[in-house]
Amino acid sequence: MFKRYLWLALLIGLHIGKGYGQSNPDSIYQTNIHTVLIHPINKPLAIPVISLDEPSSLDISFDDFKTEYQDYYFSVELRNADWTAVEMSAFDYLQGFNENKISKFSVSSIATQAYYHYQFNFPNAQVRPTQSGNYILKVFKNGNANELVFTRRFFVTENQVAVAATVQEPFDAKISKTHQKIQFVLDVKKIPFFQTDQLNTVVFQNYRYNDAVSIAAPTFIRGNLLEYNSEDQFIFAAGKEARWLDLQNLRLRSDRIADINSKEKTTIVSVKPDLSRASTAYYTFNDLNGGFMISNTESLQSENQNDYAAVNFTYLPNDKIPFRGQKLYLSGALTNNIINKDAEMIFDPTLGYYKKTLLLKQGYYSYNYILRDMQGVNPINDFTETEGNHWETENNYSILVYYRPPGARHDHIIGFSAVNSKQNW
Questions:
Q1: Could you tell me the domains of the chain?
Q2: Partners of 401 in the beta sheet?
Q3: CB 215 within 8 A of CB 228
Q4: Which residues does 346 contact at the CB level (< 8 Å), separation at least 6?
Q5: d(Cα 108, Cα 106) in Å, to the nearest integer?
Q6: Which secondary structure element, helix H or strand E, spans residue 269, and what is its range?
Q7: What one-character-per-residue DSSP string does 154-220 give?
Q8: Would you give the DSSP letter of residue 344?
Q9: Using one digit for the tens of pLDDT, what is the confidence trace for 87-101?
Q10: CA distances to 94, 143, 262, 270, 305 from 74, in Å
Q11: 97 HSE (CA, 13 A, CB side)
């Protein structure tokens, strides 16, 4: 990490919320489970958020490589802003039954890899939330909550606070061309007996929850308006438009694919080696901001007819020398937007490059490489050496406003806003 960015890393690190920086509510506990998706219906790239004030639902799906039907159930659990448990009964935040059987499924066809595809919606006729806040979805087997299969986070909001947000170029000349600043105003006039010390705002870029920035106190208070516009708070490295990989057809090599080996039981796809883009000129193009879409180019039913492939990623460092004191990660929804061992690239000293193999379903993927100094107290994403940073980069930002009303037993989400950097220039 370059010295000129060290002060920024330390500053932002002080504001990273502990719950978002350390917890991981998104986990898979069974190796036979793949491609877990949770998003609003018909919005596959959106954050999993629904509102108490609007009739909307989440679409949840996953693939199971076991070649026979499994008895799966789901439940949901309310959590606080930092993802700690709340001391409340499910009857206090749900209407209906909090143990529901997943009855909709289909069996794969055409695909070489056999799997069962399961799908359900939440809320549904059996259960719906009555309180806003952070939630964890739990899928388990045989009606036994201890036989966890996977967990996923989602958010339930209520429209009590209006959020007016923009993405701006920072005034500081040191970062004005490489970073983006999120500035917003909250209107809290609908909140009775409002208490500022019970408020907390969280912002994250491109759905990377572990690098969310959490700030409690606003910069200014003007009557019912709370302004967040400090030059040292919601500052994010802009990065560069995401790299892409087209796996929609496993018989034809797209531009980013070096080789496809279909002779093995599982198709093996070798991606062309990735290099640093830090010194390359910036240019804009439409990307998925680290997300992916399950699809194909053959007009097949993607849910149960798309195949799987073992995809080999490689990153070639300068002079084939590994990064010292830092670890390299493959970042995006393809690694669940979490920086952990599952996303870590491993350096091969014999070949002189980093490598990682992921089992991916046919679709269109986007991703970036992140360098992280693991010795830092509060490490943050660093695109400086792998991707480069350009303030013009198109990024999505999500803003969650948490508040604990007087006498409440959990943190509510009283406001939500999604803002894109391109709308400002």
A1: 3-20+160-238+399-424 (no CATH), 31-157 (2.60.40), 243-372 (2.60.40)
A2: 201, 415
A3: yes
A4: 354, 355, 356
A5: 7
A6: strand 267-271
A7: EEEE---SEEEEEEE--S-TTTTTTEEEEEEEEE-TTSTT--GGGEEEEEEETT-GGG-EEE-S-SE
A8: B
A9: 999 999 999 999 999
A10: 14, 9, 36, 36, 25
A11: 8
Reduced to 3 states (helix: H, G, I; strand: E, B; else coil), residue 77 is strand
**Cβ distance 158 to 54 under 8 Å?**
no
Closest by CA to 208, choosing from 64, 71, 383, is: 383
Amino acid present at 174:
K
What pLDDT, on the 0 to 100 scale, is given for residue 424?
A: 52
Amino acid at position 191, single letter = I
- Helix (H), strand (E) at residue 305: helix 302-305
Asked whether the beta carbons of 334 and 271 are under 8 A apart, the reply is no
Strand partners, 245: 365
Q: How far apart are CA 325 and CA 199, in angstroms?
A: 37
Place of tokens 């299969």: 149
**Running DSSP on this structure, what letter comes out for residue 11?**
H
Task: Answer yes or no: are the C-beta atoms of 293 and 170 closer than 8 Å.
Answer: no
d(CA 204, CA 201): 10
Please, are residues 254 and 27 in contact by the beta-carbon 8 Å criterion?
Answer: no
Distance CA 309, CA 99 (A): 34
The mean pLDDT value of the chain amounts to 91
Query: What is the rounded CA–CA span in Å between residue 76 and residue 83?
Result: 13
Q: Is the pLDDT of residue 142 over 90?
A: yes
Looking at residue 267, the DSSP 8-state letter turns out to be E
pLDDT (tens digit per residue) in 269-290: 999 999 999 999 998 889 999 9
Say how many Å lie between the first and final Cα of the chain, rounded: 29
Residue type, 240: K
What type of residue is 374?
Answer: M
- What is the tens place of the pLDDT at every residue in 234-283? 999 999 999 999 999 999 898 999 999 998 889 999 999 999 999 999 98
3-state DSSP helix/strand/coil % of the chain, to nearest 5? 10, 40, 50
| Distance separating alpha carbons of residues 33 and 151, to the nearest angstrom | 11
